[in-house]
Specification:
single chain, alpha/beta, six-stranded mixed β-sheet, four-stranded mixed β-sheet, 28 strands, globular, binds beta-D-glucopyranose
């Protein structure tokens, strides 16, 4: 490969090259000033900048510099507006430049396999086409500013439980057509400069070291030329990572303890003084050993990685030329807030509007009910959390003076013309029932024509690091709505949460707006919709089942102790409901407007489809028209139809517009596991134009001359898939799916649970603790010390939850309970020898382990025992040494 920065690379020592492959501190890459290599600042996040000035963390604990909090990805996906996504991306990129951020760690774009995934609010959709297009639009917008976006988390990171150690078991076709397709579309559409590899494993290999994902697919097939960075502390074996083409390990080794100043003062910035060469997270020694001694890692390969990384450094540094990177610059807070409002307005989904309850006319007597009106829920918890520049408050816009504890009506005027009769809290945000709240709300509602009831999920229920236990709305909120309806009040519900919930009251209320997590300007955007200043045009980017159990992945989510098995194959979201003919509460793509649209004149050509949309109502509006394609006589098992295009159009009242949606490389293809290629089946395809996935307005046909590849499947062995009977797929059927096709993509079905042995005296379950075992797993360790440690930690989590410290309890689950030993070592700042000592203690060699723990912090000759090239953290190696 021809190196772009050969001149610089030729001047670098081997050490410098190796050192560049890992971060300098929590947020920055390394710099080598005398070679003109500056360090890049990487910062979250997906819907606003989270640049931390002081204490650094990746869990969203410490406050960051104020930035505009735009709606989260789940919300933006409901706009189905890629131009708007790009525009928002431009604003994000502008703020990144203002804050001297080179790489913005977003958008997050994992496909939503199951509504309980704790990070769904950060992701776009259950559909890869929509997710890919939206994510690509952000990237384009961000990168026009000269800074890099970072698609994350590549790939198949669809749950939070044990996210750093879980092994995703999935067949090749499902992986490519559903989970990778979203990334593929975004990569090809927008050419991101950075991608973040995910924490999990896929079919037995850590993603960051997975040659199939990282090399064969990402680089060779999709032509990705940018940099891959690990998720924070996601590095397992640095050498394998580099060999798979991962240029940057983040963060640096010593969480929190690393001082940038010290590092800068340290000559070439290779090793901060307090790091020993065998600090496990950094694994610098191992890279050096593999380069130096066993030659496992070739210098040419390292050079390629360095070249790629330098390209990102120099590319993202240009915009800062002549600027003082030590100082933040200003951006126009007001115009950015206005942009956040525009996005929020377009994302609102009107789910119900009986008898045209909405919009409310000026002069309507309104009761405002619900804690979420007082303290809006506008973003999710975790690393994406933004410290907003300002925060719109519903009650303030309606003439109240508000502080954290009290609400006082101070004005009878408001710009929406409502006659506001008062505010009632209605329920306790964190779920505890209190009947007096309900009776106060009912009394207030009696004085009004309409009650606007703000409900949703609280901040600790939807959070990075853990999945939701169910998809319920808290019972005290449901009781409130039932009581209001029982007394005959007219009820408009505003729902605030970032992912699908069961909505049992949907048919009982008069109107329902799903505001999702709509960012810092969301409160006003909602009022603009209620007052009719804005006509709602959002449509759901995910399905809303009546009950969680309807979900195809419900029986398999979130997996067992070691693996999560994607037994449902490609049937997720509407693909499943449609194919299995299951009714849902609200289908994918659904959303109402204050006007109505008529579809006509479908024309299907070789190039794509065209049709006409007429606005048949009395107000202007926007409609999201969706193109779905199916093949009912396919020799494959496949979904009844799949989204293959969409268009959002503005139509004036009474007028019509012609809509064109072109076919593209994704329209008719499927992945053939036998030929290992994308193929097209010959024959007729059904073309559907819908206002949602179930509201099909126009139908047509398209004939395709395919590639005539052989069917890769044994239909008998895969009967469950051909019949879409995937709720209880047997081991045999899943094995048949995993082993269909060419040997290169045949995967075994590994054990899903730990291999236990029985303790000698009480015959209790015990297991060997390795680098990838988690703190939670220590409950099965041989010696009491590990079990006690795990027990204390698990007790602490429960205790914190019990006394109402839910957020802290969540952080402990994410940061401690499901933390693998290798991650503990990295964040705890111990050496690999010390970690081995800990493992020895837990595996039954208390004193030997203690000795290693105490002595292991000392700097050692790196040539001694660490240069075998085989001592990277894999569960076995540590264990073998000990047992
Ligand atoms: C998250 C990433 C985030 C990183 C840095 C990780 O825990 O998974 O999405 O970018 O932390 O905060």
């Amino acid at each position: 490969m021809k190196l772009k920065y050969k001149e610089i690379i030729d001047k670098m020592t081997l050490q410098q090259k190796a050192a560049l492959m890992t971060g300098k501190d929590f947020w920055q890459s390394r710099d080598i000033p005398e070679l003109g290599i500056t360090s890049m600042f990487l910062a979250d996040g997906p819907h606003g900048i989270r640049k931390q000035a002081a204490a650094a963390d990746h869990l969203g604990l410490n406050a960051s510099i104020p930035a505009t909090c735009f709606p989260t990805a789940a919300t933006m996906a409901n706009t189905w507006n890629i131009e708007l996504g790009e525009e928002m991306g431009k604003y994000l990129g502008e703020e990144a430049v203002a804050e001297n951020v080179n790489v913005l760690l977003g958008p997050g774009m994992n496909v939503k396999r199951n509504p309980r995934c704790g990070r769904n609010f950060e992701y776009f959709s259950e559909d890869p086409y929509l997710a890919g297009k939206m994510a690509g639009s952000y990237v384009k917008g961000i990168q026009t500013n000269g800074v890099s976006a970072c698609l994350k988390h590549f790939a198949l990171n669809n749950q939070e439980l044990r996210r750093m150690s879980i092994d995703t078991v999935v067949d090749e076709r499902t992986m490519r057509e559903i989970y990778l397709a979203a990334f593929e579309i975004a990569v090809k559409d927008s050419k991101p400069w950075t991608i973040m590899s995910s924490y999990n494993m896929v079919n037995g290999t850590h993603v960051n070291e997975n040659f199939h994902l990282m090399k064969d697919i990402l680089r060779d097939e999709w032509g990705y030329e940018g940099v891959v960075v690990t998720d924070w502390a996601g590095c397992n074996d640095r050498v394998q990572g580099i060999m798979a083409g991962n240029e940057l390990e983040m963060p640096s080794c010593l969480y929190g303890a690393m001082d940038i100043e010290e590092s800068v003062a340290d000559g070439y910035n290779i090793m901060p003084p307090h790091c020993t060469p065998d600090t496990p997270g950094q694994q610098y020694d191992r890279v050096m050993a593999c380069l130096d001694a066993d030659g496992k890692l070739k210098e040419e390969l390292l050079d390629e990685c360095v070249d790629n990384l330098l390209d990102l450094v120099f590319r993202t540094e240009k915009v800062f030329e002549g600027l003082d990177k030590g100082k933040a610059r200003e951006f126009d807070v007001e115009s950015h807030h206005a942009m956040a409002m525009k996005c929020a307005e377009e994302a609102m989904v009107l789910l119900r509007n009986e008898n045209n309850t909405l919009p409310l006319a000026a002069g309507t007597k309104v009761a405002v009910i619900g804690d979420f009106a007082h303290q809006p829920r506008y973003q999710g918890a975790g690393s994406s959390i933004v410290n907003p520049t300002k925060l719109d408050n519903t009650l303030e816009w309606l003439g109240f003076t508000v502080d954290k504890k009290s609400v006082t009506k101070t004005s009878s005027e408001n710009e929406f013309g409502f006659d506001v009769v008062g505010y009632a809290k209605g329920y306790n945000r964190y779920g505890k029932s209190k009947s007096s709240y309900i009776s106060q709300a009912c009394d207030l509602a009696k004085k009004a024509d309409v009650s606007i009831v703000y409900i949703g999920l609280d901040e600790v229920t939807e959070a990075e690091g853990l999945d939701r236990e169910n998809i319920n709305i808290p019972k005290n909120q449901l009781d409130l709505i039932a009581a209001l309806k029982k007394q005959g009040s007219k009820v408009v519900v505003v729902l605030m949460c970032g992912s699908a919930v069961e909505i049992p009251f949907a048919d009982d209320v008069d109107a329902l707006i799903h505001a999702y997590l709509c960012g810092q300007a969301g409160a006003k955007a909602i009022l603009n919709i209620i007052a009719g200043k804005v006509n709602p045009s959002g449509k759901l980017s995910e399905s809303y089942p009546f009950a969680y159990e309807q979900c195809s992945s419900a029986p398999y989510f979130p997996g067992k102790q070691l693996t999560v098995e994607y037994r449902e194959g490609p049937y997720i979201g509407y693909r499943y409901y449609d194919t299995a003919k299951i009714d849902v509460r609200y289908p994918f793509g659904f959303g109402l407007s204050y006007t109505s649209f008529e579809y006509s004149d479908l024309d299907v050509s070789d190039k794509g489809v065209s049709f006409t949309i007429k606005n048949t109502g009395s107000v202007d509006g926007k409609e999201v028209a969706q193109l779905y394609i199916g093949k009912s006589d396919s020799f494959l098992f496949r979904a009844a139809k799949e989204l293959k295009g969409f268009s959002k159009v503005f139509v004036k009242a009474g007028e019509s517009v012609k809509v064109e949606i072109p076919f593209d490389e994704y329209s008719f293809r499927y992945y053939n596991v036998k030929t290992l290629k994308w193929e097209i089946e010959s024959g007729d395809y059904q073309i559907y134009i819908g206002a949602s996935s179930t509201d099909i307005r126009l139908e047509g046909k398209s004939k395709q001359k395919g590639s005539d590849a052989p069917c890769p499947y044994d239909a008998e062995a895969l009967g469950a898939y051909y019949n879409c009977d995937i709720k209880s797929v047997s081991d045999d059927a899943f094995k048949a799916l995993l082993s269909s096709g060419d040997d290169a993509v045949k995967y075994p079905l590994p054990p899903s649970n730990y291999q236990f042995y029985k303790s000698k005296i009480f015959r209790r379950k015990r297991m060997v603790i390795g680098y990838n075992s988690t703190v939670s797993d220590l409950r099965y360790s041989k010696r009491w010390v590990g079990r006690a440690f795990s027990g204390i930690m698990r007790f602490a989590v429960k205790f914190m939850r019990g006394i109402g410290k839910k957020s802290l309890s969540n952080t402990m689950v994410m940061g401690v309970i499901h933390q693998p030993m290798r991650g503990m070592a990295k964040f705890g700042g111990m050496t690999r020898k010390q970690l081995d000592g800990l493992l020895a203690m837990w595996n039954g060699h208390f004193f030997k382990g203690l000795g290693m723990l105490m002595k292991g912090g000392k700097k050692k000759d790196k040539k001694s025992e660490d240069n075998t090239g085989n001592d990277g953290p894999s569960s076995e190696s540590a264990v073998e040494n000990i047992e």
